[in-house]
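seq as requested:
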Amino acid sequence: MPKSNDEQIVEKLDQILRVISIQVGADKSLTERARLLKLAGLENQVIADILNTSVETVRALTSNLRVSRIKKGR
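struct tokens:
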């Protein structure tokens, strides 16, 4: 069954997101890339897909960032 127009648009947007994410974080560590993508509002599963890692790894990296922000705010 052929893909609908909406499905094609979503697929293309996903490809664009991946390309931009690769370009932005090319010289950054995994932690920094995860942080940047999280700050951009992406969910852990999407970040894991982009960074070719597990959701658990992304969760751990972004959890550490939340703890840092909480400590700085106090």
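The mean pLDDT is 84.
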